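G., before I forget:
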Amino acid sequence: VEEILSLAKRKGAEDAEVFLAVEEETSVVFEANRLKQIENCQSMIVALRVIKESRIGFSSATSLNDHKLLVERAIEAAQFGPRAVFELPSHIHYPKVRNYHHEVETFPVESMISQASSLISSLREHTPQLLCEAEVSKSVTTIQLLNSRGGEMEYRQTLFSLGVEGILIRDEDMLFVGDSQSSCQLLSEPSKISGSVVTQLERAKRTAVAPIGRLPVIFTPLGLVSAFIAPLSSAFNGKVVLQGASPLGGKVGETVFDQRLSLWDNSLIDDSPGSYPGDGEGIPGQRTPLIENGVVKNFLYDLQTAGLAGTTSTGNGIRSGGLPAPSISSLIFATGDTNLEEMIHNVKEGLLVEQLMGAEQTNILGGEFSGNVLLGYKIENGEIIGRVKNTVVSGNVYTALAELGALGSEARWVGGAIFAPPICCANLTIGSKG
Amino acid sequence: MNKLFPDQANLRELIAEAIKAFQADYWEIHLEKTTATSIQYRGRELDSIRQTSSSGGNVRALVKGGWGFVSFNQMDNLKDKIALAIKQAQLVGKEISQFVPMPPVEDFFAETPATDASKLPLTAKKNLLEEYNGIILSTPKIETSNIVYHDSSKQTIFANSEGSYIEQRKGGLALRITAVARDGSDVQQAGLSLGSDGDFAEISALHHQVRETAELAVKFLSAPIVKSSEYTVILDPVLAGVFTHEAFGHLSESDFVYQNEPLKEIMRLERRFGNEQLNIVDDATIPHLRGSYKYDDEGVPGQKSYLIKEGRLVGRLHSRETAAKMKEPPTGNARALNYHFPPIVRMTNTYIEPQANSLSQMMSGIKEGIYVKNWYGGTTSMEMFTFSAGEAYFIRHGEIAELLRPLVLTGNVFATLMNIDAIGDDLKMNQGGGCGKGGQSPLPVSNGSPHIRIQHCLIGGK
């Protein structure tokens, strides 16, 4: 790695940075209730960023065998690259965050198999006809970052994930249920997941005709993520703000959301898969408030975007395909004061949505969303009366979150990266074929 | 042969030895080398420009119905990797393997695009993208733009325990151009998405379309949101292609079906899915389309498969395992995104065959309906699907009327296919975007259709 840096310098780079990630992942895959496949994936990426004549060039490869080509390509790209408006970090003291557990690395494949099969059998005890796919995986990643200003960072991270999806077919009706969890430490309680899926199965036992019109819609934490996270991650992305495509641009300090709503990004939560001591550019991880009591507080930045925007990096230069760009680490919603039962109890007619399909494939920049209720239930007089189908829920994220019906008091992790409570939107459009 | 991996000069010998040495019902090895160029603009700023190369491989083994899969970047000790995949498969396998045998093939296949993007200098690519970006940004009321360009050239080696050895080379190119208009906190976007087998000429004369896209984004600012309801809709060939892919294509992938008894009953051959005019085809053999190939990732020749003929289900897409388990012939549809993934059943180029109706015939008689064009995306749960239009207009009294904001259409596959009551005469294939399944995205596919008319289609909105 040091050789790549010095070669880049010799080829005329003023500054250079090498990012190396080496990962090994093992997964057990169940299909149709049975163990189907065991996978072992070893991968490596080496990414080189150079600054030559103040311009950024980038290249990446999957082996350390050809330094020369890696450097040549980055130098060539730098002729055309964007003008660098940042300095690579030098010696930095990193905050402590726990994201490695040796017992994940040594956890036997046989135990992963038995976790998945016990998860499936507990679901099939509840619903014998349920056909399940499940996956348990563990990985360990070593990150190394070195730059020509003496900046240096190295850490190891483990990740453990457990997920199940069930399908139940009656005549031509297909019911999909499922949940997953992931963490840097072992997940020793598959019962948490099976409990959540059993609740879905219970609520979906009966069917109901969806109401039509502008009505209250409650989103479970899973439902909230399926409908709101894509537009919010885009709106708080410093790059989107900088180019003028975020509806929140220029609104720092303004009350845009319901006053009960607070949201922050935090890369320093122990055992969260999105956590790191330093981001993909070696900037220390931190907690960044995005919304505080309804007021827009900050956007997320990497070094280059922060330079262009005249601010500082929030330590969110996250590497995807090797190149750093602003992205969320973990998103945390503050909880409110209504539990889900009360929330449901207070709705005379409306929906409880567990998954909105296709909602992310709309104008996420503007916040307009519209999706099929893949899993959701009708609420009538404060009670769930059955699952709805052929139903579409539409709205605008900013209008929906400007005045909440209620904010849930109990939050949970969804997919390891988002900690969210249920929310009730007072007024969304429901369309349905009944 | 094997000029691809000079450090694996003895690959053929190694494989021959491994065939003798290892005990498995079947195993295969994939090696791959890809070089790619990506260029991205955000507004006036060049956001990133990069050249990447990646190489790696995998081994997949089948023992008593169980699979082991090992992927890697380091090509050394290939024998150990084969041994590990077999060991994993042994841990899984408890039945009898069902896998359609294929006669050994030895072949080399490369399709060269007309103007090979991977051989063009960076300046040529950058200059063209800057022209397009300039057109968008000079359009009044446009706030910003996003341009994402990617080209790649991929070379693969496939070999298996049956003695097959196949080298293939395939190019790819994808371009997404988005124009963003803004009025206060109202942000609207319009986009253009194209792809090719690596032929740069396919994207080099879009100036007019880019201008129209930018103007459309501005018009969306003052366009109304449609009322959520059921409508008679006419889909343009691009969106009808996405519909074909999402609403029906995925359901014809046998890995969803082969282990699911109730679904097998729903998907029984000869069942009626649509009216007599409806023919749906998946075809990997059309030259120069993104979804085309000579051999799939299990060494089976790609082919043309009718999925629906005259409204009835007549076929489905298979891997060698799903074909064996369903006792149907393999179709050559096992594909992997890259060497990190095992092959799974995927579409190639999927389309609805044209019929005799002109667009104006299909429009006439619609008192109030919606004409939808272009796409943002689409997704499916097999029974339910959604797909989003990039552009929409009211149809009033058989004529296209006012512009609407982009909208989402949704439905149930069984009801919706039956509700297609007219199919046009103007088949077009679209090569933009890509397909995602099982975490493998974006896989190059193309899809197409003539204009089609659907009755009682549910649309989200106000």
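The two ends of chain A are 61 Å apart (CA to CA). Chain A touches chain B through 76 residues (CB under 8 Å).

More on Monday.
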